[in-house]
Records
---
Amino acid sequence: MQRQTATSTEPAQEADQEVVVSCPATGERVGAVPVTPRPEIDAAAARLRGAQPAWQAMGTQGRAEWLGKWRDWLLDHEDELLNLLQRESGKSWGDTALEVPFGTVFINYWAENAAKFLADEAVSPTGVANAVKQLKIMYEPYPLVGVITPWNGPLTGPLLDIPAALMAGCAVLSKPSEFSPLVWQSAVAGWKEIGAPDVLDAVYGFGETGSAVVDLVDFVMFTGSVNTGKRIAVAAAQRLIPCSLELGGKDAMIVCADADVDRAVEGALWGGFVNAGQFCIAVERVYVEEPVYDEFVQKLVSRTAQLRLGMDTEHHYSADIGAMATRQQLDIVSRHVDDAVSKGAKVLIGGKARDDGLFYEPTVMVDVDHGMDCMREETFGPTLPVMKVRDIREAMEKANDSRFGLAGSIWTRDKAKAIALARQFNTGLVHINSVMLGAGQAPVPFGGWNDSGLGFRSGGAAGIRKYCRTKSIVADRVAMKKEVNWYPYTPRKGKFQSAMARLVGARDWRRRLGK
Ligand code: NAD
């Protein structure tokens, strides 16, 4: 089946069952990867399951050594990986160059902390009657984890989750996006090249391939759109397996009257336009308090005018904003801007697609309101709609007027006010005087509320324990012939037991001593 023309930048599944990848910036064919037939997906899952027990038995130190070798391989092949990644995604080199360093932070974090996070945990019993019990929690990996990722971070997407799952002792079957599968294919080839155990593989194709992965694994880690996420949640529920869903966002930025306006402008620029706005926690809408609104907008427009749109070459850093990854994504951005303009918004800069490649000009819009798609639906593009608000109360009401709840940011010089306002955000992550970087903080959970997801990634101990089933061990400190509540039941013993239960269970003397 041919989904697109040869010059299109959409992936095409051709008659010979290949996903063909073209560069979104130039339209050139970058490469192709065969669609993995279902029997091969089944076989890969079975193989990975077969290898997993030895991987688990190797322990955290042994696993960390393999992850370390893989990190070294990724660093040694950084240029060739990034070159491929840039061509299949159309990013600027500056955006491209973020991906390997970001991934290595996560590999190192889980490799260095897994032993501590996964150690058996001794916990205290509760209640006098249980005083002699010895309690322990063990963490045992789900044998096979499926990691399904989107196109916006072809390397960082998988690397945000896979190192934690591998360090937990799981095997991982990954499924990269059909729009950018090539660099991940190389990264997985690197795992094989270093001779690592057969516990990481990838399968390729479209939605059906992802759905096959969901059929075969014990835990699904999914990143992508809300619609696909909901479909996966249903499929996982039918199999009674857990899933973690990292979905879309509509992140609000609130600029208070006492903010450092210059810093806020720079934050809005990078947070709104990095990766051409194609990050789930990109700034999607901005609310500015009246006293600093004019200054903020004027500075934002003049800084936007200095940004360079295009796909530069390796190490050149001569472009800031790259291409939209897909024609479909470009169309969504155009539609949101056109909808806003038709309802009265003013475009101060940008507002149109370029003729060559899938580029959309960085755009600042004002006179926007919540009747417009650009304020309510995920745009995932280089647009910053800016709204003037009377006060913080109105800003917060608007920020929370959304079905999404991924992240947000608050900009003020008053730290106490920032914390108080952060509590009011209906999101899983709040930045104070910053943007986006929360996604890179492995020690804190990163998860969306409402339509933005289910569960979380990262989050210190919880971020690796989520790939494990718990096993509780209940033993006795002292061995008695038998427990007092075991047979035989007798009136005398029964009376004694209820008196004791009352004595330790009640919290006032009348109930302790009688009825
Ligand atoms: P998508 O949902 O279309 O696809 C994501 C992945 O799911 C792809 O690999 C795709 O092949 C696969 N897939 C499609 N149908 C499937 C099915 N029925 N079963 C299993 N797998 C299936 O998303 P996209 O357009 O590639 O990515 C963009 C979205 O991802 C945006 O909404 C963005 O906000 C979101 N995203 C979220 C985060 C986060 O951490 N919250 C990070 C990055 C991107």
---
Amino acid sequence: MNAPGNVWQGAGRRIHLQEVGLRDGLQMEKALVPTADKIALCNALSATGVAKIEVTSFTSPTAIPALRDAEIVMREITRRPGTVYTALVPNLRGAERAIESRTDELNLVMSVSATHNLANLRMTQAQSFDALAQVVARAQSAQVAVNVSLSCVFGCPMEGDVPEAQVFDWVQRFVDLGVCGITLCDTTGMAYPTQVHQLTAAARVRWPGVAFTLHFHNTRGMGLANVLAAIDAGADRFDASLGGLGGCPYAPGASGNVCSEEIAHALALMGYATGVDLDGLLAAARQLPALIGHDIPSQIAKAGPRLALHPVPADFDAVRARALAR
Ligand code: COA
Ligand code: ZN
């Protein structure tokens, strides 16, 4: 939905921005955002042209009360052709709910860290894998696409570094099941650029046919640097959240995802083609504080885009006259 000549459209490499604020962001919020407002926000995000929107999660309403209206939201949003509407699904029950609600893609989740998997999903990794294999089979029989998000790929807040071989073993197991995409998640902002470059490049060499998404949190201020490092290593799909909302309820210290409008702004300046209307994204982000009852991390929502210029100070003419008179 970009006007021709939109200044925020680069002509360079296509980078897919995938909006996760409605799920990764809202799942953490204390205030319950009214269902109608979630639907309106999703529609506004669709209109900006993002490639994919994680609309909600079909999790237990006791575990994630903020998203207990998943069915209504998924059914009542307006679907823009070209945007993929995905949802997080933890188990077979969630898959049935998501399929019933006409979700385009199921985003399954498990952790490459045994400790984080138990804390977040209350299952051992073997139990998670068996359960998810059933979900993949169910989705395949319903002809619904599956993406798997692997948590703690760049480090676990409880275990520390996770060996690359262990990460890649889980990737291989899901690739063997025939999933369409894999998301490498930096769940708690432990990733750093050289690590990201190395792991992304290695994954792309080993699985050239798999659509990898990179999912970074900005917990330690390295989010944008990590996105750029991943692009340099050939990645072209990124999760990001409006306003920089986000966090994992079972990952101590986790903070917001990389911020959609910050990433869209930086990538457009660098000439990448995101297909996203930055002005629309900014307008949506600026509505967030009223919806969630607090400020948002987004720097661009505060500062405006780089060339959103300010008037000169009121005393400018006098200052200039004095300077020239010297
Ligand atoms: N949708 C709706 N309800 C669900 C459900 C689903 N997908 N999965 C489980 N439930 C319900 C069960 O019916 C049961 O309800 P009851 O207490 O009324 O009988 C309750 O949740 C507990 O079910 P149980 O099978 O014992 O699972 P659990 O409590 O171990 O929950 C998870 C396992 C993973 C499904 C649950 O903890 C969850 O949804 N967690 C959210 C994980 C998440 O999204 N984390 C953040 C993203 S990384
Ligand atoms: Zn996340």
